[in-house]
Amino acid sequence: MVPDELYELFERVVPPAPVRPQGGGRRRHGDREVLAAIVFVATTGCTWHQLPPVFGPSGPTAHRRFTEWTKARVWAKLYRLVLDELGARGELDWSRCAIDSVNMRAMKGGT
């Protein structure tokens, strides 16, 4: 689910695993396993609890790591790296990305 090129970019932005000073406990699932589980949930629309056991981490574990990485802005950093990589290869057509104006509806009851 996670191509090598994407995972190499991901490794550049993911924070290191926290050190457990007390030691012991269960082995932490690898980042690549968890990333694959997150990609599966995002692309299939299943819930975290419906995550098949073949991925390794449980749904709650994948969701917890997703939340950690979201707080660390991993997704925004990865998105930027992917755009930079594609741009460097000449595989982005920026002329198709121009925005002349943006219209947004206000949320009801919002400030």
TrEMBL record:
Pfam family, one: DUF4096
Name listed for the protein in its UniProt record: Insertion element IS402-like domain-containing protein
Record-annotated Insertion element IS402-like domain positions: 3-78
Originating organism: Yinghuangia aomiensis
Matches recorded under InterPro entries: IS402-like_dom, Transposase_6_like
Domain of life: Bacteria
PANTHER family referenced in this protein's UniProt entry, alphabetically: BLL5188 PROTEIN, TIS1421-TRANSPOSASE PROTEIN A
